[in-house]
Amino acid sequence: MRVFIVIVFFLAFTQVSQAQWLTRPRVQNNQNFDKAPISWGYYLGFNSLDYNFDYIEQQEDVQVTRSIGFNVGLIGNLRLSEYVDLRTEPGLSFTRRDLMYAPDPRFDSEDDLLREVPATYIYVPLLLKFNTKRLNNVRPFVTVGVSTTINLSSNEKNPDDNFAGQFRTTTNPFFYEVGFGIDLYLPFFKFTPSIRGIFATSDELVRDNIANSPWTGNISKLSTRGIFLNFTFQ
Fold it and tell me: 3 FRET partner, CA 20 to 30 A, in 14, 57, 105, 224?
């Protein structure tokens, strides 16, 4: 599903760009917008986050059920050159993942098979934005960068573990990111849809107090991966 969304988004961008190339020159909106050394804005969007598991021994995988989360934040953009910008997009991201474990004789009841993992992230990325040449009122771009988060729902310091019903993760995971989007210059502002993949570089799992825990004992690494779909207004 995630790959399908990326392909559809890319094809849509391609069609818009081709249409601009094939039409006659048009009056450009906000012609001087990109000449400002610093610009600001805000964004709203959606996310779909997953977990990637690495296991110590090969067993049945933990199944992850994702939900559609919500993003909101601000944008600060610094113009480095005609085609390169440095930007940050601090914001909040809300999401939830449900983990379903395979049956294990160590579980006391069926309720032990399910762990709900909500997350509220304070999200702080640092991105390089590589722009193409503006085509009338359209300008595609790609972004690469890194980010850190503060997970307000991590429960990293909570002494209760899965034996008390509490699945714990680290508070400060780190990510690398890659994405693409398209700037649309409207008469009174710039509107930008973009899509971005995020991939955690650190192990986010806080293991249970008992080493052979059926929830965490066989997991060597747990890391977030997912997609952000944002709509920016500047």
Answer: 57
